[in-house]
Amino acid sequence: MTRTLSALALAALAAGTLAEAGEIPDATIVLEAAINLPGTIPDAAPPRFVLRRDRTVFIGGSEAIWAGQLSKGEAKGIENRVKQLRKAGLLNPTVSFGDDATKRYRLRVLKGDVRDVVISGDPGTAPPALRSLASLVTDLLNFDHPSLRPWAPDTYALSAREGVLLGGCREWLLPVPFEDVLAAPRSLAADDADRWPSGANPASVCYRGEHYVVTRRPLLPGEQP
Fold it and tell me: 100 — phi, psi (to 5°)?
């Protein structure tokens, strides 16, 4: 049985899931954002914001990624804001800002006292007690820095699931057995599918009479599928 892409996306949101990204080596702060746009697969998008111990930052969109380098003071400033939120008891496992529950975020603090916070709602409508957390989420979502440059991954996590997209579908010609990709995400070199959509933008594949939705999630340095 096949399901439409919209049904898949709604099911993911109803279950309250965000991208289960692989571990990102040396990351200290990671913010993921569910991209609720027609025709996209939110869990295939790169993280919206990643800060690593070496002060490298990665900023992700629906598929593109930018990389930059913060100064010691800039990185410390972000980490101090997170520390203040932890001390204030605001980094609970689940948090709601209210209003639009389809907006979902996952904030992971991976340095010191590790926290994993799933957030729903619009940061702009957060109650007074949560405004400092909402301010951090908003700033990370809109993060900009003079050092940011386009960054191209060497490897992608290739995934497939049953589903129907509008339009035609591609023949499976990638150098990975399709049954393996159905079983679990597989690593794929960037050059092996450079003309395929990536990130939250999926491709349609027909295989043995069935329709599938295939995604390529960009992998950050050292990250595994």
Answer: -80, 100
How is domain 15-149 classified at the CATH fold level?
Mago nashi protein (3.30.1560)
Tokens 């380098």 correspond to what residue? 69
The string of DSSP codes covering 63-132 is: S-EEEEE--HHHHHHHHHHHHHHHHTT---SEEE--S-TT-EEEEEE-SSS-EEEEEES-GGG--GGGHH
| 3-class state of residue 190 by DSSP | helix
- CA–CA gap between residue 53 and residue 58 (Å, rounded): 12
Q: What is the pLDDT of residue 13?
A: 34
Computed on alpha carbons and rounded to an integer, the radius of gyration of the chain in Å comes to: 18
User: Which pLDDT does position 132 carry in this prediction?
Assistant: 98
Q: Would you state the structure tokens that stand for residue 182, as one six-digit string? A: 């159905």
What spatial distance separates the first Cα and last Cα of the chain, rounded to whole Å? 26
Predicted model pTM:
0.86
Pick the closest to residue 105 from 34, 190, 20 (CA basis).
34
In the chain, domain spans: 15-149, 153-218
Q: Are 108 and 115 in contact (CB under 8 A)?
A: yes
